[in-house]
Every structure is written in C-alpha cells, then in structure tokens.
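Batch job 17 of 40 flagged for manual review because the log was empty.
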Amino acid sequence: MNTLKKFLLPIFAAIMACSSPQMESLEPEEIKEVMTRVCDWQLENLSDSATSRKAIEKIKYVPDNGWIRATFYAGVMANYYATSEKKYLDAVITWGKRNNWLPGSKTRNADHQSVAQVYAEIFFINKDEKVLEGILKNYNVMIEEPLWGPETGWVKNNN
C-alpha cells in the first residue's frame, strides 16, 4: 500500500496544480512564448548522448533517427504549428536530411519507426516523396514478410 501512495501522490499533486486558478490565467501567447524558449534552448543544446536511467554515470549514444530524437522533433513540429516560425520547420528538415530521411536500422522495432510521424508531417507540407521512401521500404518489408507474436519482438532481437 505504501508503494501505491508513493505512486499516486505525484499524480494527485499534478491534478491539483493543473486545476488551480493560476492555470486559467495563462494566455495562448504566454504558452507559445514558453514553448519557444524551451524549443530554442533544446535546439541550441542538443547532445548526441544521454544519461542512462540505470546508472547516472553511464552515458549512452542517442541515435539521430531513433525514438528520442523523433519525439523531440515531433515537439519542434508542434512549436512550428503553434508559432508558424519557419526556423522550426527548417530545423526538422535539416534533421531529416541529416538522416537521409531514413528510419532506424531495425525494421520491425517501433522505436526505429517513430521518425515516420515527423517525416510524414514534412511530406504533407512539402509533398516531397523522398521524405517517405525509407519508411515505406520498411513498411513494405513488414507487409511482405509478416512475423507474428513470438516470432518478433525484444526477446529474440528479431525486430
């Protein structure tokens, strides 16, 4: 029961903070300003490594076309949509070009496919089919050579 309390306490605190009268006073422009400051800082300070959750002193290389970067650049796209500032779109396009618009190396691993969301968003903006070629190649492999259940996944490293 003690573990449950430790788990639920931060959740309840977050709910209470979000329902406070202070939250109602935030204006869309204030939110955009904070989003932009955070996005700008992240773009200027983006590292190619991250600290492992298992060991603080362990540093791990972060692949540029893996899920961590895909998640980050999905946020950059959100900032672009909110602000219409071209520098954010340009940052995402530069990232995609740096990756040759390719997903990660493991065809069946969702972490390595997560770039698809951001690449697709770029496609819908600029209609350049090259942006989707690498993703579609991976998807075609999965469709043409399906693996089900225990045939694929983390256990056999067959993803």
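Reviewer: the log was empty due to a logging misconfiguration, but the result itself is present. Residues 26-151 form one domain. Unflagging and moving on to job 18.
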